[in-house]
Design brief:
Elements (H helix, E strand, L loop, with lengths): L16 E9 L3 H9 L1 H7 L7 E7 L6 E7 L6 E11 L3 E10 L2 E15 L2 E12 L4 H20 L2 E8 L3 H8 L5 H4 L6 E7 L6 E7 L5 E12 L3 E8 L5 E12 L2 E10 L2 H9 L2 H18 L1
Antiparallel strand pairs: 1-7, 2-3, 3-4, 4-5, 5-6, 6-7, 8-14, 9-10, 10-11, 11-12, 12-13, 13-14
Helix pairs in contact: 1-2, 1-3, 2-3, 4-7
């Protein structure tokens, strides 16, 4: 976490501190877990105020992996955060170390344990931070920062949609069907929909400009812009209403091997709560499951 650590003064270090935070979230447990762990979502909620920008420069979300980020405020030195994942028990617990530094000096080190619980449409997050502050003001910064960060997290989770499907095919085959410009347009979209592509480049920094055509001939212009791409693990992208149109969601897809099968997770953080509710209202969850079903049939029938 890099929240609210800007502007702290140097001086004598504080005592060792153990901090506790709890938050109820009006979102299912699987959604809260994705919002907590997915880099595309973390980049949205980690900034405590609009004046702060969080840039994630590296993200490998698995045990032994790490996330590097920069917290930026105009006119102030960047704050660097290194987060290393030690435990990832899906929808139960995560443990990570966290080292904060600025201008070449380490300012704090911490062990962050997050416990998850949930039932139905609600969930709960309890976070314990064992903090070793190496500069003055860090304990206060963590207290304020985690409070702001968890409030942001709840907001993000409450406008996030998560779809999952276990596909009985190897991860390499599933990834290949998705990240191949020849095959993606052949299965993408709900039942009865087809795709008409203008441009497609599925590499990091690439884009897919296309129309989705409904069963009744209605045309829905789309523009996907691709961010980080980690082969056979995950990719991030943004969804726009038509070519260079307004963004309506930040999204990601992950691919996890499970005993010869592949768990595919598709997550979307809608730009506003209103857009999230509108999407749910017209059946986006069911339509999304139909899309993953078409992917399943595509790779298992080949």
């Amino acid at each position: 976490m890099t929240q609210m650590l800007m502007g702290q003064t140097r001086g004598e270090p504080e005592r060792f501190a153990t901090l506790h935070f709890e938050r109820d979230v009006a979102a299912p447990l699987e959604v809260l877990w994705q919002a907590w762990t997915a880099p595309a979502a973390r980049a949205i909620w980690a900034a405590p105020t609009p004046a702060v920008t969080v840039e994630i420069t590296e993200a490998v979300t698995r045990v032994g992996g790490r996330e590097l980020s920069l917290c930026k405020v105009a006119g102030q030195p960047d704050i660097a955060c290194e987060c290393g994942w030690l435990v990832l028990q899906r929808e139960l617990r995560s443990v990570n170390y966290e080292v904060i530094s600025s201008e070449g000096a380490t300012r704090s080190a911490a062990l962050v344990t997050a416990d998850f619980a949930g039932s139905g449409e609600g969930s709960r997050l309890a976070v314990t931070v064992q903090l070793s502050p190496l500069a003055a003001g860090m304990e206060a910064g963590y207290r304020e920062g985690f409070g702001a960060g968890l409030a942001n997290l709840a907001d993000v989770a409450e406008r996030t949609m998560v779809l999952q499907r276990v596909i009985r095919a190897p991860r390499s085959l599933v990834w290949g069907a998705w990240m191949n410009p020849e095959t993606l347009p052949r299965w993408w979209g709900p039942d009865g929909f087809s795709c008409r592509t203008s441009r497609i480049d599925l590499r990091a920094g690439g884009e897919w400009v296309f129309d989705m055509i409904g069963p009744d001939g209605t045309v829905f212009p789309n523009h996907h812009r691709y961010g980080d791409v980690r082969p056979q693990e995950r990719f991030d992208y943004t969804l726009h209403w038509g070519e260079n149109g307004p963004k309506h969601a930040d999204a990601w897809a992950t691919f996890q091997e499970e005993d010869g099968t592949t768990r595919v997770t598709l997550g979307m953080v809608f730009s506003t709560a209103a857009e999230f509710q509108t999407a749910r209202g017209f059946g986006a969850v069911e339509l999304g499951h139909q899309t993953l079903g078409k992917l399943d049939r595509f790779v298992t029938w080949r």
